């Protein structure tokens, strides 16, 4: 049994808490005291398997060291969290979409053993204490550049995430780039057209999916055929899911468009990517 903290109780944070609390001691750190109180009263329910678990909940200001701290907040919250995280130097696992948090973490938390992770599970938060597992995907983790994990460390990490199809990768940048491509295609298109991931498989969207996939794979130096195959696999596995960007727009929250297409536009000012970037930015501005 390991002592784990999960920072962030959005859809991914709740999904991790729902599975990891079955075997480990989990503390879930929330943004608001209201959500912490509700979780302490009602637990966290996985609506898909109809199971409730009881992690301890605290607000993020009370963060203390744990064996593992999984940071599952949106990428744009990482910067403001940095002073809190630097105080509890430990083994961190960062699970964010996009790339903008990577430099911040590698620079700000040099003394910790950091891992970056990607999640392709579909998750939807229905209430502050309830989440649905809307698509079975996987979790991939790779060590950051200054982290040289031992075989024993890798084994522990694998056992920690076992219920969620864990894979350990060695090339962190390649892993994050592959996920960036997935998010750069699925998230803006589903948010733009207000559709579930699976609807992207319809012939109506095929040209647009292929076109964005081609542009992003070229920009990130990924093999197009392989990238397209992986993309279709993830769309298929999460076909019932609403992407995190669509959920953000529907809930009138800030999206991760800056960390995804915004980041890619800093590499190349591609007009199709800019079109989708600006469309989502306008939506976001109108909502907030
Ligand atoms: O990461 C996701 C997201 O929505 O942000 C995918 C894998 C696309 C699942 O919807």
From TrEMBL:
UniProt xrefs under InterPro entries? 6-PGluconate_DH-like_C_sf (IPR008927), 6PGD_dom2 (IPR013328), ApbA (IPR003710), Ketopantoate_reductase (IPR050838), KPA_reductase (IPR013752), KPR_N (IPR013332), NAD(P)-bd_dom_sf (IPR036291)
Q: Which domain of life is it from?
A: Bacteria
Instruction: Choose any GO biological process term that the UniProt entry carries and state it.
Output: pantothenate biosynthetic process
A GO term, aspect molecular function: NADP binding
Gene3D superfamilies associated with the record: N-(1-d-carboxylethyl)-l-norvaline Dehydrogenase, domain 2, NAD(P)-binding Rossmann-like Domain
Q: What class of enzyme is it?
A: oxidoreductase
**EC number in record:** 1.1.1.169
Q: Which reaction does it catalyse?
A: (R)-pantoate + NADP(+) = 2-dehydropantoate + NADPH + H(+)
Sorted alphabetically, the Gene Ontology cellular component annotations on this record are: cytoplasm
Q: What is this protein called?
A: 2-dehydropantoate 2-reductase
